[in-house]
Write a structure and sequence with these properties.
Elements (H helix, E strand, L loop, with lengths): L1 H18 L8 H11 L12 H16 L12 E10 L5 E4 L2 E4 L4 E5 L1 E11 L5 E2 L4 E2 L10 E5 L8 H17 L4 E5 L6 H8 L3 E4 L7 E4 L4 H6 L6 E8 L1 E14 L10 E7 L21 H20 L5 E7 L7 H8 L8 E7 L9 E5 L7 H9 L4 E4 L13 H5 L7 E4 L6 H4 L15 H19 L14 H8 L2
Parallel strand pairs: 5-8, 8-9, 9-11, 14-15, 14-16, 16-19, 17-18
Antiparallel strand pairs: 1-10, 1-13, 2-3, 2-12, 4-11, 5-12, 6-7, 13-15, 17-19
Bound molecules: zinc ion (ZN).
């Protein structure tokens, strides 16, 4: 009898320990250790192009390896290299065209290109825009080989300054692909020229497209009259010392938890959080602090949640596979996520959902705020995952901030993947949030709530588990602005 009882105890013991889920097994000590490291002063604010962020990358990869994650196909170990280039415009340079000389710093802005002296015929090509989908092509019937292309700023559909500025990158490629020697955009936006010059006329970093093509903006006195003139056989002379270029790599850190279901494991739930921050800057104006922007809330706690999810989901694997990615360069304009969306490591149409994390801070630790909660059919799993640990959930309370379209989730949403952002509990973008948001005092000190960090990691991981175990993939709710993209991505 006694023996049998002991045997029964032995059989029960492992069952009891299994009853504790991998989320519940996470401890406050371990997540506190992670954030104290990730947001430490020694990592100097995790700015891309500095050693601090690469140490963070190594730390994340080390944990993925320890937990037995698989490396993603086609990347270098745990790291997807995102190539960056920093360009600084020159102090001098000129373009002479139709008897007028445009001078760098005055009515000429050199955007790209190496040292060159050119003398060639000019050709006007509308906006210099090509859109394969609609068949629209400003180069139709034009031979621009060996010539200097002159175009209007913006695109046929977009003349907002931001869109017009970023369209230049593609326009540069269109001109280069067609054998042109240089591209000149004629500035005719309502946005003041001097502001535009200040905005883009300084040192700037972006993802390196590897294209070293002479690209300029000029500001004639009357842009409309300038564009309407007949250039005939006009030649232009370009003389530029070129931009100063520095290149550096940064990394998206990634690993895969293979799904336990032989069929569903071919589908992926993608978990993302940016691990970069803004580096070292000005000290806080009021609170005595150093000038290191530790980014504990933004987005150290998201990075820690990814590490916690990697541990718990690999310990008890859900049915679908999980692609976990710590993204670089969110603070520079969502650059790491955009790079991944354009260079996916698993097919986008096999990526059923993206549960992104980003954080400004919190003003309610009884709460999780999910930006885009009600925009996908995964809302029930998200609510259940959060309720499991006694927290409440609300959708974006600060619609005026446009948060859904301001974090990495939007890089995947625009491809059609349902992609809300899981944030620490905030009920408004109020003083409590702004006190820490992009401030040097956003650090893992006595004002940081480590108990809440644990719950945050647990609710996030549990939510991911529920979504990965769903019978059918979630989707956008009917009428969402990304629904059509989703339909075309998944062929629904
Ligand atoms: Zn952030």
């Amino acid at each position: 009898m006694k023996k049998q009882f002991l045997l029964l105890l032995c059989l029960l013991a492992p069952m009891r320990s299994y009853a504790q889920s991998a989320e519940e097994a996470l401890t406050q000590d371990e997540v506190s250790d992670h954030i104290r490291f990730i947001a430490s002063d020694e990592l100097r604010g995790r700015k891309p192009g500095t050693p601090g962020i690469d140490v963070a990358a190594r730390y994340i990869a080390h944990h993925f390896e320890t937990y037995g994650l698989k490396q993603a196909p086609g990347v270098d170990g745990w790291f997807q290299t995102v190539p960056f280039a920093t360009t600084t415009p020159p102090q001098t340079g000129s373009i002479t065209l139709g008897g007028k000389t445009y001078t760098q710093g005055d009515n000429l802005l050199t955007r790209d290109g190496q040292k060159s002296i050119l003398n060639a015929l000019v050709v006007v090509a509308g906006y210099g825009w090509v859109d394969e989908k609609s068949g629209m092509d400003d180069y139709k019937g034009l031979d621009v080989r060996g010539k200097i292309v002159i175009v209007k700023m913006g695109t046929p559909n977009e003349t907002s300054p931001g869109a017009a500025f970023s369209a230049g990158r593609k326009k540069k490629k269109f001109a280069s692909d067609r054998g042109a020697l240089a591209l000149i955009e004629v500035y005719d936006l309502a946005f003041p020229w001097n502001n535009a010059k200040n905005f883009v006329g300084r040192r700037q970093a972006s993802v390196d497209d590897g294209l070293r093509f002479p690209h300029f903006w000029i500001k004639p006195d009357d842009a409309t009259a300038f564009l309407q003139q007949n250039f005939g056989n006009t030649q232009a002379t370009v003389n530029t010392p070129g931009v100063t270029l520095e290149t550096f790599p940064s990394y998206n850190v990634m690993g895969i938890v293979e799904g336990s279901d032989p069929i569903l494991q071919n589908e992926y739930l993608m978990l993302t959080a940016h691990y970069d921050h803004v580096g070292v800057g000005r000290p806080h104006p009021v609170v005595r602090a150093d000038s290191i922007y530790n980014g504990a809330r933004d987005n150290g706690m998201g990075t820690v949640a990814l590490i916690a999810a990697a541990k718990a989901l690999s310990a008890q694997r859900p049915k679908r596979s999980i692609l976990i990615v710590a993204l670089t360069a969110e603070e520079m304009g969502l650059l790491g996520s955009r790079y991944l969306a354009d260079h996916p490591v698993v097919p986008l149409n096999k990526t059923i959902f993206n549960l992104n994390i980003d954080n400004g801070g919190w003003n309610d630790t009884g709460l999780i705020t999910v930006v885009g909660l009600e925009r996908t059919t995964a809302a029930p799993e998200i609510k259940r995952g959060i309720a499991d640990f006694g927290l409440r959930v609300i959708d974006d309370p600060a619609g005026e901030q446009g948060l859904f379209d301001r974090s990495d989730n939007v890089s995947f949403a625009t491809k059609g993947i349902p992609a809300p952002t899981f944030s620490a509990g905030f009920t408004a973008f109020d003083e409590q949030i702004m006190k820490y948001y992009h401030q040097a005092i956003d650090q893992p000190d006595e004002n940081f709530d480590f108990a809440y960090l644990l719950k945050y990691c647990q609710t996030y991981t549990r939510t991911a588990r529920y979504i990965a175990n769903r019978e059918t993939p979630p989707f956008w709710v009917a009428g969402d602005k990304y629904e059509a993209m989703g339909k075309s991505l998944y062929g629904r």
